[in-house]
Task: inverse folding
């Protein structure tokens, strides 16, 4: 991976224009990890149609194959071949799934195997060049060199729209690969079914057992011209064929069923003839997919759909209008904003039906149902950003979480859920943080009392991930449960969030109970070494322990140096615990300046040197709040210095422009907040901690019709230190802004300088 380049300041002011998508670079992501995807999708769209560039299996010789981690989003910028275009993707996750319904157009001899990257001519994949590739919001275009085909993609919320321009040839093929998937392995596809309804319409479904273990997706595929023949190859090994053996199912037989199927459809084409495909998805049925298709894209006007879908992006991007000192910063900002609006994703048909966590069909009554809740990541900044920019959507997301709770046999809110499945990834119960943040900030288009009840129920589910020990002992014992310190600290924060919700809703009993629980972080702090440390079931601290190592030390995605600062809800208490303001300052300074040897992160596949400053790990989320901690000890100038350093060093507008997984928008949400000059250190509080804005000016248009006006005087690469702040014309001396002040409409002026104001 190339290091992210420092941003260069060009001495000219660049103003945004109406067409803000011109400043979005969807290819931006880490080259090594490849966790963002280019392609066609609308904001929060169910269809995320994108090229996949390899077919690595999740396993090799019965073991996890680490190289597959590069393909979490399906696309690797450094690859030279494209396998095809699938309709579902995650953006920036550290684990993966999806990659459903891969389509690839080909010419010449029909080949139903994908081939290899080194020898693409032995299969259906094709070489391509970035010189012939265009990636924009809601649009993707590339030339498939091996087949001399121009591929174009766009999408509506539930329908992917393909346009393929062919050379003159007797027979062109459209291949539908139902075996393909991301994080694939033998046995992941449980069953697939295809019906050829007529010579332009195909329907079916696919069920997989992966990260989501009971995930079923239905489809309807329509062609703009009749195919002249079709067929499929089945790669199942079952000895049982039943009485279907009386048919030759391989060619022109209108039903296809099996675990491993690749279908094809043949067309005669003339020079520059275009074959268009509309591919609709549904969580409910093929009838639902058909309704989605006809309602969202009733005709074959590709350019109209592209234009309308790109306008949807402009509508969202225009919520923040900014000035920057360079085009590079401008592109990085709007690319980040684009990333934050990729998910969570719509999960229901146009008629409101969706499959619930109980595997039954439900009706979303008065709200849009969402899925793809990567909550360990997104509670930190993404959902707080939604409370500012997308309060209605965030309210619907919380209603979706409450529907999940209603359907859950565990009586729990989501932990990490997608496609009617709880996959239990990561730790904590951070739905409660998302809900509490909305309640405290007054964004409550849901039953808040019910939400509090659901949060308490979730926080008391004893058999969940060491929670019983936590309830009994006030900590998770390291010899009884993994990642024990991280879990203890995150449970304590979530408990504080529940307490804030209870306070807002005037429930004194729940408030007192959970405020007491929120102090449990003290129980894993070892004063003899000044760090958080794993504690055993007998109450003693573990003897063999490293403050620099992550694996096997009681932490997840962070070492003790970083996690010892994970008390965002009680910073004064943490400062006292560590030894006072002077010692706390030394701790923070050391974190950013010490050297972390390669041995301490060599085995962490999601972190490389590019995501680290000293021992501060920005490429993972647990420390995202830490640079703002200097505000609590009278050294705000250090917060300002560190924020600008991170903004410039760890983000850019290049293909390696992220220093870690975007994690469904969290990394990008950090950038958006910090570029604007403030950040939600503890979601569940109305306070935003003040940093150092990167923008020269910004206008934030709120859903309530009011605006936040931000002007930064004397902005430059050197002038990173805040000299003075005016809020609505009056000098503001606090180290934080208040959410309600911003939502009422606010004028903020930052005066910057080259020297710290100590």
Result:
């Amino acid at each position: 991976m190339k290091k992210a380049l420092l941003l260069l300041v060009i001495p000219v002011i660049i103003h945004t224009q109406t067409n803000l998508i011109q400043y979005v670079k969807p290819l931006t992501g880490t080259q090594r990890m490849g966790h963002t995807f280019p392609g066609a999708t609308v904001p929060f769209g169910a269809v995320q149609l994108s090229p996949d560039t390899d077919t690595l299996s999740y396993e090799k010789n019965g073991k996890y194959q680490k190289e597959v981690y590069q393909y979490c989003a399906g696309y690797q910028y450094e690859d030279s071949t494209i396998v095809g275009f699938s309709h579902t993707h995650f953006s920036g996750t550290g684990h993966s799934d999806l990659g459903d319904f891969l389509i690839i157009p080909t010419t010449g001899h029909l080949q139903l195997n994908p081939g290899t990257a080194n020898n693409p001519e032995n299969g259906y994949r094709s070489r391509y060049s970035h010189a012939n590739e265009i990636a924009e919001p809601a649009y993707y275009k590339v030339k498939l060199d091996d087949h001399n085909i121009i591929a174009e993609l766009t999408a509506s919320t539930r329908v992917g729209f393909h346009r393929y321009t062919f050379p003159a040839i007797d027979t062109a093929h459209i291949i539908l690969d139902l075996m393909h998937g991301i994080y694939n392995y033998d046995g992941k596809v449980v069953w697939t079914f295809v019906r050829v309804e007529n010579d332009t319409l195909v329907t079916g479904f696919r069920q997989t057992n992966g990260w989501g273990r009971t995930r079923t997706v239905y489809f309807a595929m329509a062609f703009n011209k009749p195919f002249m023949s079709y067929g499929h190859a089945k790669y199942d090994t079952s000895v049982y064929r039943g009485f279907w053996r009386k048919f030759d199912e391989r060619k022109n037989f209108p039903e296809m069923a099996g675990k491993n199927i690749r279908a094809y459809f043949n067309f005669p084409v003339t020079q520059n003839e275009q074959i268009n495909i509309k591919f609709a998805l549904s969580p409910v049925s093929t009838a639902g997919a058909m309704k989605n298709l006809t309602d969202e894209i009733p005709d074959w006007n590709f350019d109209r759909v592209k234009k309308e879908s790109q306008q949807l992006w402009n509508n969202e991007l225009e919520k923040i209008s900014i000035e920057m000192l360079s085009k590079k910063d401008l592109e990085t900002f709007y690319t980040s904003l684009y990333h934050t609006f990729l998910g969570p994703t719509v999960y229901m048909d146009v008629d409101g039906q969706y499959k619930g966590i109980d595997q039954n069909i439900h009706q979303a009554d008065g709200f849009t149902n969402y899925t793809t809740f990567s909550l360990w990541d997104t509670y930190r900044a993404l959902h707080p950003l939604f409370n500012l920019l997308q309060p209605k959507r965030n309210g619907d997301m919380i209603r979706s979480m409450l529907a999940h709770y209603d359907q859950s046999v565990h009586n729990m809110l989501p932990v990490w859920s997608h496609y009617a499945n709880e996959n239990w990834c990561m730790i904590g119960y951070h739905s409660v943080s998302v809900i509490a943040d909305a309640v405290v900030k007054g964004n409550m288009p849901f039953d808040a009392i019910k939400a509090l009840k659901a949060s308490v129920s979730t926080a008391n589910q004893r058999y969940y991930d060491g929670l019983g020990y936590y309830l009994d002992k006030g900590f998770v014992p390291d010899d009884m449960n993994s990642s024990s310190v991280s879990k203890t600290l995150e449970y304590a924060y979530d408990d504080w969030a529940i307490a804030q919700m209870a306070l807002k809703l005037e429930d004194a009993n729940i408030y007192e109970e959970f405020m007491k629980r929120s102090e449990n972080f003290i129980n894993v702090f070892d004063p003899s070494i000044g760090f958080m440390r794993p504690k055993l079931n007998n109450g003693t601290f573990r003897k063999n322990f490293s403050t620099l190592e992550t694996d096997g030390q009681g932490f997840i995605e962070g070492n003790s140096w970083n996690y010892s600062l994970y008390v965002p809800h009680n910073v004064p208490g943490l400062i006292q615990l560590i030894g006072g303001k002077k010692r706390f300052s030394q701790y923070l300074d050391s974190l950013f300046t010490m050297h972390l040897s390669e041995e301490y992160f060599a085995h962490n596949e999601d972190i490389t040197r590019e995501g680290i400053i000293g021992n501060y790990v920005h490429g993972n989320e647990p420390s995202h709040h830490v640079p703002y901690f200097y505000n609590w000890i009278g050294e705000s100038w250090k917060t300002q210095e560190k924020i600008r350093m991170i903004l410039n060093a760890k983000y850019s507008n290049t293909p390696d422009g992220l220093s870690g997984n975007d994690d469904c928008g969290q990394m990008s949400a950090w950038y958006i907040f910090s570029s604007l000059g403030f950040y939600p250190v503890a979601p569940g509080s109305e306070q935003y901690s003040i940093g150092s804005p990167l923008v020269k000016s910004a206008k934030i248009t709120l859903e309530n019709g009011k605006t936040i006006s931000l002007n930064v005087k004397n902005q430059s690469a050197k002038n990173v230190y805040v000299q003075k702040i005016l809020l609505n014309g009056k000098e503001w001396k606090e180290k934080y802004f208040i959410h309600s002040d911003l939502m009422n409409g606010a004028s903020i002026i930052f005066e910057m300088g080259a020297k710290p104001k100590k």
